[in-house]
């Protein structure tokens, strides 16, 4: 069966067409994400001394952590997802997303590496960030800063490698802008804002410690 991806000569032996509709795939993802965010928001509202901004960040880290571990983890360790005949949801997600970037279906080495590292390292640490914020741990800002830098690095590698390889992996302009550009832009904008905030918090803390030492002297 011919696949819908670009380039058309991409070799995908045993390819099985998508069985779920686009609306079903996106709808399930949207509802699952809404459930996670709503649950974390409600639970975090019962915590004392947790600001609304920190509650939002807890929602973000829970969402992105589970996305990394479940979606990206499945991709990284399922090299033949495009052959799935059972209509397994996670396989269907990547068959659909590959319309925006066929490097996923083609198992591009850079993509597999970035997604594997993201799933194994950034996924669990994102969930740790939820805990750190909830408990007011001293390492919270450092952890969030480190994860955000990792996400920015991975996203930059993702975009730059596509550009260097010709940036011709989308089935149509719609998939290019909706999947490749828009869907990934959140992992540029939000980590950037978090990194700046954490940098300021860490800098203030270090400055405060320096001032205390100077007073003691």
UniProtKB/TrEMBL annotation:
GO-annotated biological processes: sterol biosynthetic process
Pfam families in UniProt: EBP (PF05241)
Keyword Cytoplasm: no
Protein known as: C-8,7 sterol isomerase isoform 1
Organism: Theobroma cacao
UniProtKB keywords: Isomerase, Lipid biosynthesis, Lipid metabolism, Membrane, Steroid biosynthesis, Steroid metabolism, Sterol biosynthesis, Sterol metabolism, Transmembrane, Transmembrane helix
Topology in membrane: Multi-pass membrane protein
All residue ranges annotated as the EXPERA domain in the record: 53-195
Molecular-function annotations in GO: C-8 sterol isomerase activity; cholestenol delta-isomerase activity; steroid Delta-isomerase activity
Transmembrane feature ranges: 20-44, 56-77, 109-133, 145-164, 176-196
Annotated compartments: Membrane
Gene Ontology CC annotations of this record: endoplasmic reticulum; membrane
Family stated for the protein in its record: Belongs to the EBP family.
């Amino acid at each position: 069966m011919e696949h819908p991806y670009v380039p058309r000569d991409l070799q995908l032996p045993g390819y099985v067409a998508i069985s779920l509709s686009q609306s079903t795939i996106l709808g399930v993802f949207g509802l699952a994400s809404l459930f996670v965010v709503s649950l974390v928001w409600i639970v975090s509202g019962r915590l004392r001394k947790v600001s609304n901004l920190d509650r939002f960040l807890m929602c973000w880290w829970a969402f992105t952590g589970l996305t990394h571990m479940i979606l990206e983890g499945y991709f990284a360790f399922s090299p033949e997802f495009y052959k799935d005949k059972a209509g397994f949801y996670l396989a269907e997600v990547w068959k659909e997303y590959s319309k925006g970037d066929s490097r996923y279906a083609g198992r591009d080495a850079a993509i597999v590496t970035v997604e594997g590292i993201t799933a194994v390292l950034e996924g669990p640490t994102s969930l740790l960030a939820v805990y750190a914020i909830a408990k007011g741990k001293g390492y919270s800002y450092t952890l969030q800063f480190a994860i955000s830098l990792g996400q920015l690095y991975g996203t930059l590698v993702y975009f730059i490698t596509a550009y260097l390889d010709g940036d011709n992996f989308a089935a149509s302009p719609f998939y290019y802008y909706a999947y490749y550009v828009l869907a990934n832009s959140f992992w540029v904008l939000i980590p950037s804002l978090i990194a700046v905030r954490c940098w300021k918090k860490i800098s203030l803390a270090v400055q405060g410690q320096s001032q205390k030492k100077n007073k003691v002297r």
